[in-house]
Every structure is written in C-alpha cells, then in structure tokens.
From TrEMBL:
Catalyzes the first step in hexosamine metabolism, converting fructose-6P into glucosamine-6P using glutamine as a nitrogen source. Its main location: cytoplasm. Keywords: Aminotransferase, Cytoplasm, Glutamine amidotransferase, Repeat, Transferase. It is found in: Cytoplasm. It catalyses: D-fructose 6-phosphate + L-glutamine = D-glucosamine 6-phosphate + L-glutamate. The active site is at K359 (for fru-6p isomerization activity). This is Glutamine--fructose-6-phosphate aminotransferase [isomerizing]. GO terms for molecular function: glutamine-fructose-6-phosphate transaminase (isomerizing) activity. Homodimer. It comes from the Bacteria. The gene is glmS. Its EC number is 2.6.1.16. Residues 40-179, 212-354 form the SIS domain. The keyword Ribonucleoprotein does not apply. It comes from Acetobacter sacchari.
Length: 364
C-alpha cells in the first residue's frame, strides 16, 4: 500500500535515503570501507571502452555514469539510447564492455540492444532493479539496485539507486585501472556513505519546493539548465515534469543556451537551474546571468555554500545540503523529482498513472 502517502510516487520519493543506504550496503564493505564489485563479466581493469545504453530515466543515469567513469576512472565511454544503438550498428571494439541500465529489466529496446551487444561478442554488465527479469537472465553479470518494487510510472528511487551503483562501479573500475589512490577512494566512499542522511534533509525543503512549484505550474514551457553531471539531472527533472504534470519542459546543457534556446527566454518561461558548488559553478552562473539579463525568471537548486551567489539573480533559490561534488547529482535529482511531484499536485493530474504511459515499455 501507500503507507499513508497520497501517491506511490510520494512514498517512493521518501524512500530515497533508505534505498541509497541499502544499495551502498551491498557494494561497500563496512570494515574496509572499500567498494566490493561482485563477479565481473571480464577483467574490469583492462577494458578499453564502455558502451552504455538504456531508455528514459535510466539513460540519464547512464549519462551521469559517463561523467564519472571518464573523469574518475579515465575510461572512454560511449552512450546512446537503446532505440538508437540497436539499429546503428556502430563498430564495437574488442575490449569494450556493454553496460545496460534498467529498472524493470524488460524494456524492449534495452533488451534488443543487450542482445545485439552480446551477438558481436561484447560482455554485458547490467544494472537492474528486477532481479528475475529477462535482462537479468541474459546478461553476463548483474549489479542489483536495492530499490524494492517501484509502482509509480515515474521512476524516482530506482533512478537514484542506479546512480549509487554507478558511483560504486566507477570507484571499483578506477581502482582496477590503477588510477585511484587509497586516499581518494576513502574520500569518495565517505561522500557516498554520507548520502542517506544528507538525502533525508531534502524533505525539510518541502515548503520552498512547493513555492517553486507554484511558479512552474503556471507555465506552459519550462527550461532546465545544468552543466557537467548536473546536465543529465536537468534532463531527468524535465522528463519528470513532462511525464506527470504535462507541462512542456526541455533540458539544455547551460553552455548551449546561446546557440538557440536563449531566444525563448521571457518572463513566461521559467528556468530551473541545477547549479551545485563545484568546478562548473562559475560557468553555469554566467549562463544564468545572461538569461536573467533577458528577462528570465530563475528558479535555482544550489547548496548552502553557494546560495549567496544566486540570491541576487534568482527569484527562488533552494540551498540543498552541501556535499562532495562527486555525489551532487544524487542530491540534486531528488530535489528536481520533488519539484515535478509538487507541480503535478497543483495541476491535479493522475500522478501515479499519467496518461499514455506504461511502467514498463515491453514493445518497441
Ligand atoms: O524499466 P526501465 O528502467 O528500462 O525503463 C526505462 C524508461 O521507460 C523509464 O525510465 C521511463 O523513462 C520512466 N517513466 C521515467 O520516469
């Protein structure tokens, strides 16, 4: 049941801290504080490239994974949505690892992509929530997300569990490749272990997020902007808003704005910015200043450390807990998902069963 929550989505949003914690428990040895990867389908230290594929939110999780694997594990990554990869017939190098991400393990396009990767001889590792699914049976190895059943059509906790697994996988791969020292591993693992309690703090921002939602709910179109790993978070926020509130939303890499979308900006198109402290903060801020100068209304998700920089330009700011830059996409994701939920409540839509959508897309 819904345990007293109004919707499964609300219940599942509140399960974020628990699910992140459970997933970490499965992947980090509490005694050594080291990531322990189960049997991998190949020698993980000698792979030359990783080919990630998935659909929808799982694809956005994969995009965050790409930033991590490239930056921290120094592993080249290709990523594409499964419906494109399966027909593209790209040249796949030996020494590549196929990495699939799916909550249900039954998505038709992802399953077809899995089969085509295996057909050309690539080992396939899948990050799955459904342990007894078709993809689980057909993969060479599985990393489980410990999210429990997800009922709401809009994915929430399964997505952050996917990010949690990808973060641990990144650490394991980086160590196996010899590019991660003990001190750096300890720093990243601490950041992960800190997450469940930091994630729980986000629920104290309910009123601020509702105030933001009241701006979003009035709009016909909304622009989401972010850079680096906050860019796929913007994409996830825009998808969730579209799915459950039926408001048109698009996400752009903040640096792309001046190549087109900036012409949309006026006071009727709110801009939701995901802008955590970190290396790309100043760059994103300058994009937001440009938007502001053109009459844009900014709604910013930042953190305690940087909020003072945004107060002057943003109509609404939310100062999320400050965490290690590695894990900011996980914290930011929860916040943008709550914004979509609160907006859908104001619109009065059928949150758990949005029109035209199925929980698991088992046909092409
Ligand atoms: O079960 P899967 O993770 O393979 O599903 C992929 C997408 O269909 C799914 O993430 C979809 O985009 C959600 N409705 C997003 O909220």
């Amino acid at each position: 049941g819904k345990d007293g929550y109004r919707h499964y989505m609300e219940k599942e949003l509140h399960e974020h801290p628990l699910v992140i914690g459970q997933t970490l428990q499965r992947m980090i040895d509490p005694a050594t504080r080291k990531v322990v990867l189960p049997d991998m389908p190949c020698d993980i230290g000698s792979i030359r490239r990783c080919v990630i594929t998935a659909c929808g939110s799982a694809f956005y999780a994969g995009m965050v994974g790409r930033y991590w694997l490239e930056e921290i594990a120094r592993l080249p990554v290709d990523i594409d949505v499964a419906s494109e990869l399966r027909y593209r017939d790209p040249p796949l190098e030996a020494g590549s690892l196929g990495l699939l991400i799916s909550q249900s393990g039954e998505t038709a396009d992802t399953l077809a992509a899995l089969r085509s990767l295996r057909n050309v001889g690539l080992p396939v590792l899948s990050i799955l929530n459904a342990e007894h699914s078709t993809m689980a049976r057909e993969s060479d190895a599985v990393l489980g997300t410990v999210a429990g059943p997800e009922i709401s059509v809009a994915s929430t906790k399964a997505f952050t569990a996917q990010l949690t697994v990808l973060a641990c996988l990144t650490i394991g791969v980086a160590r196996a490749r010899g590019v991660l020292g003990d001190a750096q591993e300890e720093e990243l693992v601490s950041a992960l272990l800190d997450l469940p309690s930091r994630a729980a703090e986000i629920f104290s921002f309910g009123e601020d997020i509702r105030a933001m939602a009241s701006v979003v709910a009035e709009a016909r179109d909304v622009l989401y902007l972010g850079r680096g790993s906050a860019y796929p978070v913007a994409m996830e926020g825009a998808l969730k808003l579209k799915e459950i509130s039926y408001i048109h939303a698009e996400a752009y890499a903040a640096g792309e704005m001046k190549h087109g979308p900036i012409s949309l900006i006026d006071k009727t198109v709110p801009i939701v910015a995901t802008i955590p402290s970190g290396a790309l903060f100043e760059k994103t801020l300058s994009n937001l200043q440009e938007a502001k100068a053109r009459g844009g209304r900014l709604l910013a998700f930042t953190d305690e450390r940087s909020v003072h920089r945004l107060n002057a330009i943003a109509e609404r700011t939310i100062a999320l807990p400050h965490v290690h830059p590695f894990v900011t996409p996980i914290i930011q994701t929860i916040a943008v998902q709550i914004l979509a939920y609160e907006t859908a409540l104001l619109k009065g839509t059928d949150v758990d069963q949005p029109r035209n959508l199925a929980k698991s897309v088992t046909v092409e």
